[in-house]
Amino acid sequence: MAVVSKESKKKVPVKTIRLKIGAGEATPKPPVGPALGQHGLNIQEFCKSFNAKTEHLEKGAPVKVLIDVYADRKFDFRVTKPVASYLLKKAAGVSKGSSSTGKGSPIATLSRAKLEEIASFKIDDMNAYDIASAARTLEGSARSLGIQIKD
């Protein structure tokens, strides 16, 4: 039987931290500072690398971040595309969703073509096998925001 050295073993994260941060807006203030500080991570290093990694996105677009924390206080992180509700509201031209969904007239309308465009952009981050199922998922999100989808 072969002996496996410590270097060849895959690093296993001891904790995964999930945050939602505006693209290019990571600062040591909450929620970033306290979430990383309690695990002894270098907050400033994370902020610089996160802001550099999200500079291609629209500044302030909310993105989900998954931070893998290792036992030696090192970390890796993955950034998803902007959240679906942000993309839907931006495409519909509204600043916030309806306060009473389904009980009156919709606050905005969105074409099916635009919905499928958002679905094709977002499909890598979704639990969907094809554009049609991703579009159906986004249609439900749009409905809960008070946005009507027109064919």
Largest sheet: 3 strands, antiparallel
This entry's quaternary arrangement is single chain
Termini Cα gap: 63 Å
Give the strand order of the largest sheet, numbering strands 1, 2, ... along the chain: 1-2-3
> Total strand count, please?
5
Helix content: 25-40%
CATH homologous superfamily caption of the largest domain: Ribosomal protein L11/L12, N-terminal domain
Structural class: alpha+beta
Q: How many domains, in number, for the residues?
A: 2
- Tally the helices: 5
Over all CA atoms, what is the radius of gyration? Answer: 19 Å
Helix-strand pattern: EHHEEHEHHE
Structural write-up:
- The chain is an alpha+beta fold.
- It folds into 2 domains: 15-82, Ribosomal protein L11/L12, N-terminal domain (Ribosomal protein L11, N-terminal domain, 2-Layer Sandwich), CATH 3.30.1550; 84-150, Arc Repressor Mutant, subunit A (Orthogonal Bundle).
- The protein is 34% helix and 21% strand.
- It is built from 5 helices and 5 strands.
- The chain has a 3-stranded antiparallel β-sheet with strand order 1-2-3. The protein has a two-stranded parallel sheet with strand order 4-5.
- Strand 2 (62-69) and strand 3 (75-82) form a beta hairpin.
- It is elongated, with a radius of gyration of 19 Å.
- The relative contact order is 0.14.
- Mean pLDDT is 88; it is low at 1-5.
- It comes from Holospora obtusa F1.
- This is Large ribosomal subunit protein uL11.
